[in-house]
Amino acid sequence: MSKDRRLFVCVKQKSEVGEDVARALKKELKQQGLKSQVIAGEKWRTQVQTCNCLDLCKQCKKGPGAALIVYPEGTVYGNVRPADAAELVAEHLGRGHVVKRLHLD
């Protein structure tokens, strides 16, 4: 049985950048081979989805990027741009490290 991880990318405030971030994350997952992986003996599948609102509008307005949440961890990132996708995928999804410069408390 596999477990699912989802990256929800907000497109409400900044639809164009949110869509671009989602595309970049999907591309990086595929390129880095992390769309499906085994963690602690369990198979995990990762999917990227866009959504209308993450209730982080205040954070979205602070910079040019979009907000996203990684589930099931519940890690929240803000001001994410397409150029950040490679680092987010490698660090958070590949190594299990929060990307502090994008992390929202």
UniProtKB/TrEMBL annotation:
Protein's recorded name: Ferredoxin
Top-rank taxon, per record: Bacteria
Phylogenetic lineage: Bacteria, Pseudomonadati, Bacteroidota, Cytophagia, Cytophagales
InterPro entries: Thioredoxin-like_sf
